[in-house]
Amino acid sequence: MAHRRVNAPTLAVQDGFSGVPLPCAGEWDAYVAAHAQATPFHSRAWCEAITRATGHQCHLVTARDANGALTGILPLHHVRSPLFGQALVGSGFAVDGGILADDPAVAATLAQGAAAMARSLGVPSVELRGGPLPEGEGWAREEGVYAGFARDLAAADDAELLAIPRKQRAEVRKALESGLTVTTGRDAAERRDHYRIYATSVRNLGTPVFPKALFDAVLDAFEGDADILTVREGGRPVASVLSLTWRGTVMPYWGGGTADARRLRANELMYFALMRHAREKGCTRFDFGRSKVGTGPFAYKKNWGFEPQPLVYARWLASGERPRDTNPNSARYRLQVDLWKKLPLWAANRIGPLIARGLG
């Protein structure tokens, strides 16, 4: 068992457990590329981008067979925050990831390694957002909070419309006839417009915005497998989404709209146009991402005809420790959320990234 610490822009190797040879960059990439259950959040590209943008170190827990070949990996970002505490998160700012292993025995070994790493670093918890669920001392399941939404794309626009329930389909048709325009790209102008819209959207929801460097780092790391789609009214951006593409699946990841977006049905156009854009890129599946059960986004995705799939996460806690609370819907943050909604956008954009980088 060994682990590797990633300090972008270069990789630094630290022997954490037994002195077994650590994976080079190519070995890490090859293992993820060959594994059927791998997600973009297991990739070196994601892990290095998160470290580069936030400063959170990435530790890679690895397992090998008797011949020295990799049999499992677990990337963990060491997230630290004066407000939310610290944790090893697999992986940082992701909705999936967790243990990636050849078999259950290897998965159990990686879970033991993650707990051992947390103890050695003095970190009170490990948070895994996907993958095999560990069992044993200190580990607990967390379920009933999030659901994921994904389905196959239809072959063409007409069939895609028919896949949407009638009421939502009518809204999409109105959006398609509205005169709004759509642009896609990765250049500085698209990035600027996307961040402005996303920052406005999350401020209006009462949550701090992530640093712009995070979006830039992910776009740069994934190159042609990440881009931005923006809906415009007369050239003015009103809704925008940054998406990842992974193994034929498009994943709208960071998106939002201005106050006018709902009136203009810009979000309806945005997601339908993204489905079209994804088909043109050769994608066959649309992953609408996760949402908290019982929230507006949860209901919105169901309205599009996506069936919720419960997500079960895992957390390890050191003896006597309590889990981090990073849920903006938590009662303890109600006053802060209400106050945040009233902040001028310039102030929210200045303060928000300092807070949000600690959410992980």
TrEMBL record:
Pfam families: Acetyltransf_6
Coiled coil: none
Residues in BioF2-like acetyltransferase domain copies: 169-302
Top-level taxon of origin: Bacteria
NCBIfam families: pepcterm_femAB
Name recorded for this polypeptide: FemAB-related protein (PEP-CTERM system-associated)
